[in-house]
Design brief:
about 55% helix; mainly alpha
Amino acid sequence: MISKGIELAYKILKRQILPVLALAGATTFLLPAFGQVPLDRIPRIDSTNAEQVASGKSVYGAKCASCHGSKLEGQPNWRRRLANGRLPAPPHDQTGHTWHHTDADLFGITKHGLKPYAPVGYESDMLAFDGTLTDDQSAAVIAYIKSTWPAGIRARQAGVKQQETAQ
């Protein structure tokens, strides 16, 4: 009787519990690499830091402006799908939706591309800059973008940040 009970417990452990634990462990270690970036791994993003903003403006001009525009205006008709089904690059100024996202998401999208943040099957031309930009450069680009927003937009984006981190 005892050996059958142990055998049954082993089968349950092997078939049901271990896969769940393996998935939980994989999620803990792989999510930062392929999805949302934990807040403690994001360099400080400070749109009031003149040095960081100047660095970000330079990097933006070299790496981002070709798609998102030299004045952060995005591509024309950015809300209408192209012939390939993808959307053009959106503006990063106050007319776009960049400010609707938290700093953590903006950093993650810059680092890993849009795929980890988009619905399954969504196609985007947004490049992943991991390996091309350092984390500090990515943070500086975001600081630069945020520095161009009017105070009201910066405040609204800060509210989005607070709402998400409170959840």
